[in-house]
Amino acid sequence: MNTIPILKLGEYLLVSIQVDMHDRLALQLQDELTSMLVKTKSRGVLLDISFLEMVDSFMGRMLSNIAAMTRLLGAETVVVGIQPAVAITIVELGLTLPNVRTALNVDAGMEILRRLVDFSDQKGGYECQQE
Amino acid sequence: MIKINKKISEILTQHKNEIFEDWLSGQLASVSLRLDLVSETELRRQSQEFLNLFVTASLSSNLQDINTPEWDGVREYLTSITYSRARQGFSPTEIATFVLSLKHPLFSHLRELSGVNSNDLIDMIWTATFLIDKLALLSIENYQRGREEIIKRQQQELLELSTPVVKAWDGVLILPLIGTLDSARTQIVMESLLQSILDTGSAIAIIDITGVISVDTLVAQHLLKTMAAAKLMGAQCIISGIRPQIAQTMVHLGVGFGEVATKASLADALAESFKRLGLAVIKPQARG
What we know:
A: alpha/beta; B: Transcription Regulator spoIIAA
């Protein structure tokens, strides 16, 4: 059974889905991603689904779930590379994914992620400073 | 029944030339004659050809069902005449009259028949009427089909014509919408917009609805869907070209575009997209 690699890139996690997703793999990804987030104390997740050619309502829900979970763990998620057919399917399914941030490609996604993390730094609570 | 059929086909064969002349003069005298569209020689040729096929088919002694192989020739010829006439702009009445006007000469020859009792005569007239009516209905059906093909082709052309996606600037796409938005068109608009977003890597799409005749709840919903899909691809949408009347109707209907930015004109939308991209338009300084 294949797994989806989760790469750590600085303070971000990079997940590129390059195989056909099925429900079990999606659940496994949720599992691994959340534990990885806690372990690495990452600030953001970049989810690249440009190889995904089919989505169903379960996958749509998984995308919003991942976004919600990472937010609970103090990180931001950006989904990049949604294909036109996939975008149409998601909309036709009635899922607008209001809580999911999206970007056209990895470059743009990284840009958004950086901005989000900076923004939450400015706004966000306190920083521990070592005297 | 077979006796009646035989009798009719006999009359048709024997009096073919008289029936033809009567039929043609009847057609030429008729109000539905369109000499502007079809010349007299052409009409003569078409009538002659049709009658020949008709008489040949009637020899099969089957005058009840025109869907049998014996009537193939008649059906095909009638179809070709109807198609060409539908394209020329004949009305349905004029097309049906071509076949229906065959009744009068045929019936008058049936009447002149000697030694037939009135019951048989009525049977014969009934059979002939039934047959000719079927052919007339067939020509009307073909006429309708010909018109539908024209409409379908035009619709297709309209769809292909009306969904251009224009690149206005690096990262800015404009989608000028014209006409009415139904689900079929929304689908095509959405597909071409998303494909262009992917191809050009644009971050902003301006949907210009100056040419959209009216915006009701359905149209607004279609637009919202398109924008939601574009957002999933990572592009922001701006709606422009909302005319004053449309703004009023939309408010009265309670239709809105949610959080999407809307602008009155395309220029405003372009300015807004420049602002979002961090670009500025400045005048070159006058040379001193």
